[in-house]
Design brief:
With 479 residues, the chain is α+β, with helices and mostly antiparallel strands. It is built from ten helices and 14 strands. The strands form four sheets. A five-stranded antiparallel β-sheet has the order 4-3-7-6-5, with helices on both faces. A five-stranded mixed β-sheet has the order 9-11-12-14-13. Strands 1-2 form a two-stranded antiparallel sheet. The longest helix has 74 residues. The protein is rod-shaped. The two termini are 70 Å apart. 24% of the residues are buried.
């Protein structure tokens, strides 16, 4: 029995030494891998730097651009098709108008021709408006040697070679039927032509041909103006449609962007708020394993960290519910000075020191959220408000009218970018900070209708002023 009793402590000591050595190896392994993990996280953009957009915003911006491009492509295709149809219809109508004008001129000219004493008379044609209009008129009379030009009114059209008019006249005289088609002028430009036969009033035979040539220049100019108007109007409408499509896409994706941003903020805040108590629990547990005589104090510290962890989870869930509109902000009177002193005592531990200078102050708001905001400000002063490895000195002042909490440290001061925008997330002057603590504190202040101000204090250090309203704000501001 004595041998067994003496062996039990040895076995426990050996097991304890093995456990301690195993935890030491794990800590060394984690410490060796930490730089690589940190570099990998920075490359993947898991921790945005100041001024860097989140990947969700980039994806939504790309989605908006693609939607706008799709709207623009649909409008371009639709407008191009409609423009082509409009130009085709206009061209056909132009051809029909020119053909109708040629037929009217030719039939009028043929009706004005008559024979007197076996001679073709042209006096009525000379006196008629067709001999002074925009359409060229040529009259060919048939004879024994073929057809001969007896009347010519070229109007103001370009000169047409005689062979171009003589050929259609002969064909019409020989066949006795009308002929249509283009004829080339001296510059090689086609012009619409119509040749019709006219008969001898006595014999009833084909006595010749009337050839008319139209001017397609005005119609073509009108068609070009229409095409230019369609192009300019189409481009203008496409630009407006593209801008309108982008605005509609942006407005349509705003609820999605807001929901995704709220999700990202909740995840980031949860990581920030849960990291510190979990780290404390892990460190205290390692200490308790290595030093059994410190287990009672370590267990008490674990209980406090667990309480803080539960408080953080409750506040994060409360914030998520507030932002989502699932519940209203709780407003109740509480002693701000007592709450601030309690947070200061829980947060500032030796070798750091905290000096409370308070007066009785009653504020109205959510004590749990105010506690988180004050804890973040005091933690920020302890972690970053000291010089080198010296202990931090934190001064806490609570005053009334309006209820204000001032947290001052003795550090090297605050970066101007952080002081100008304390509520901007992921902006911090510390290498190991996330920039979320001040953002959460600023959000809590704005939610209660107050504000958070950061400034460099006289004599060195940073002063954070959390100011709350004397009475409940009429509307909570949620960001």
């Amino acid at each position: 029995m004595s041998g067994d009793s003496s062996g039990d402590p040895d076995r426990r000591r050996t097991a304890y030494q093995r456990t301690t050595a195993r935890w030491a190896r794990r800590r060394a392994s984690l410490a060796a891998r930490l730089p690589a993990w940190r570099a990998l996280g920075e490359r993947r953009g898991q921790r945005p730097q100041a001024g860097q957009q989140l990947q969700t915003a980039d994806r939504l911006r790309g989605l908006r651009i693609r939607l706008a491009a799709l709207v623009m492509a649909i409008n371009v295709v639709g407008l191009a098709g409609m423009g082509a149809v409009a130009l085709l219809v206009d061209e056909r109508q132009r051809d029909e108008v020119v053909a109708a004008e040629l037929r009217r001129t030719a039939s009028t000219a043929a009706a004005l021709l008559y024979y007197d004493s076996a001679s073709l008379r042209l006096d009525k044609l000379f006196d008629n408006a067709v001999a002074s209009g925009p359409t060229a008129v040529y009259v060919y009379e048939a004879g024994r040697a073929g057809v001969t030009l007896v009347f010519a009114y070229p109007a103001r059209l370009p000169v047409i070679p005689p062979a171009g008019l003589l050929g259609p006249a002969r064909a019409v005289w020989a066949s006795g039927t009308e002929l249509t088609g283009p004829v080339l002028d001296g510059a090689g430009t086609p012009a619409p032509l119509l040749a019709v036969p006219f008969e001898h009033a006595v014999t009833g035979t084909t006595a010749g041909a009337v050839v008319v040539v139209g001017d397609s220049g005005p119609a073509e100019a009108a068609n070009r103006r229409l095409a230019l108007a369609l192009v300019v109007g189409g481009l203008s409408f496409t630009i407006l449609a593209c801008a309108g499509g982008y605005l509609l896409a942006r407005r349509g994706t705003e609820p999605i962007a807001e929901a995704l941003n709220q999700q990202e903020r909740f995840v980031a805040d949860a990581a920030h708020e849960l990291r510190t108590p979990l780290t404390v629990i892990r460190a205290v547990s390692d200490t308790a394993l290595a030093e059994p005589q410190r287990r009672p104090a370590a267990l008490r510290q674990v209980v406090r960290s667990a309480d803080r962890l539960a408080d953080s989870v409750s506040v994060l869930l409360t914030r998520a519910q507030l932002v989502a509109g699932l519940r209203d902000l709780r407003r109740e009177p509480f002693r701000l000075d007592q709450l601030a002193e309690e947070v200061l005592a829980d947060t500032v531990v030796p070798p750091h020191t905290g000096e409370p200078i308070t007066e009785p102050v009653v504020a109205v708001g959510d004590p749990a959220l105010i506690r988180i905001a004050l804890r973040n400000l005091i933690q920020n002063a302890v972690q970053h408000g000291r010089v080198a490895d010296l202990p931090a000195e934190v001064c806490l002042r609570v005053s009334a009218n309006p209820p204000t909490v001032r947290v001052r440290d003795r550090g090297s001061g605050l970066d101007e970018a952080v002081a100008a925008a304390p509520g901007q997330r992921f902006r911090t002057s510390a290498e190991d900070g996330t920039g979320l603590g001040l953002a959460i504190a600023s959000w809590v202040a704005e939610l209660h209708g107050g504000h958070l101000r950061l400034s460099n204090a006289d004599g060195g250090g940073t002063e954070a002023r959390l100011r709350l309203p004397d009475s409940p704000a009429p509307a909570a501001r949620r960001t």
